[in-house]
Design goal:
The protein is α+β, with helices and mostly antiparallel strands. It folds into two domains: 96 residues, Sandwich (Immunoglobulin-like); 179 residues, Distorted Sandwich (Glucose Permease (Domain IIA)), CATH 2.70.70. The chain contains three helices and 21 strands.
């Protein structure tokens, strides 16, 4: 039998945990492309959680279990549900997804193949997309680090979720955070994990994927050089490579993507308010 957790209990658990989460946890921002941090209870055994039939990161803070849920950018505002299973029962926990408007970004490229690829390019792109999908779909039991550091210091040149136009043609929304920095600037792992994919991609240029555990995967692209190998275990702060201008770019920068439960979300939500303030200051 599937039970519904009562709203008063959800609110109480959220009030208990909100102070502990401040400043060192993916920020609760339940919008399309955002992250929902949902209290689950304080049972002794770790619950299993699914959202849209996919496993969800579950962690514990101050004795309370928390689900860290990636919300698809295509989601409509309104109520969503988690399926939570424990040794005692299975229940549904509802949470609200709020609306959010994302900006537009217009980009001019001189290389027309980067806007309208030829048949050979498309064949290559399809193969690279399959490799990327496999990397993002990984689910490993390793408990992920959730206290991320900034992978590179620089200026924000592109925000997550923006509707992009290349040479006036609409394309998919931006899937990550762009940080402009000089070519050769070191890129550091924001958290520990395992390198599960590297390569030179048509659009992404030199690219690295890291599996942090439990469906939390990050990607780094347009790199000038790659300093890690597939299968390598890396720790927080280790150098992954350097900033470059490979792939579809107008200048040197790092494109940084984060996927939760196989859903791309805004990397800014993994940064502290102090780090975001520093990034914003670099843009002024």
């Amino acid at each position: 039998m599937i039970k519904q957790l009562s709203p008063p209990l959800i609110l109480l658990l959220w009030l208990v945990t909100s102070t502990a989460l401040a400043g060192s946890f993916p920020r609760h921002n339940p919008v399309p492309g955002g992250v929902a941090v949902i209290p689950l209870g304080n049972e002794a055994q770790r619950p299993e959680v699914r959202y849209n039939e996919r496993p969800v990161v579950v962690t514990q803070r101050e004795g309370v279990w928390l689900a860290v849920v990636g919300i698809p950018l295509s989601s409509d505002p309104g109520l969503q549900q988690l399926k939570v299973s424990s040794a005692e029962n299975t229940q549904r926990i509802a949470f609200e997804v709020n609306d959010k408007a994302y900006p537009q970004q217009h980009i001019t490229l001189s290389n027309r193949r980067q806007v309208n690829p030829n048949p050979d390019d498309l064949k290559r792109i399809r193969g690279e997309q399959a490799r990327a999908r496999a990397a993002y779909a990984r689910i490993t039991e390793q408990a992920p680090e959730l206290d991320f550091i900034l992978p590179v210091e620089g200026r924000v040149s592109g925000v997550f979720g923006s509707q992009r136009f290349f040479n006036g043609q609409p394309r998919r929304p931006h899937s990550g955070l762009d940080i402009a920095a000089p070519t050769g600037t070191p890129i550091r792992a924001p958290a520990g994990g395992k390198v599960v994919e590297t390569g030179d991609y048509f659009f992404n240029g030199n690219t690295v994927f890291i599996d942090h555990g439990e469906g939390l995967v990050s990607m780094y692209c347009h790199m000038d050089s790659i300093a890690v190998e597939k299968g390598q275990i890396i720790g927080q702060g280790e150098v992954l490579g350097t900033v470059g201008a490979t792939g579809r770019v107008t200048g040197p920068h790092l494109h940084w993507s984060i996927s939760l439960n196989n859903t791309l979300v805004d990397p800014e939500l993994f940064l502290t308010e102090q780090t975001l303030a520093r990034l914003n200051a670099a843009n002024n």
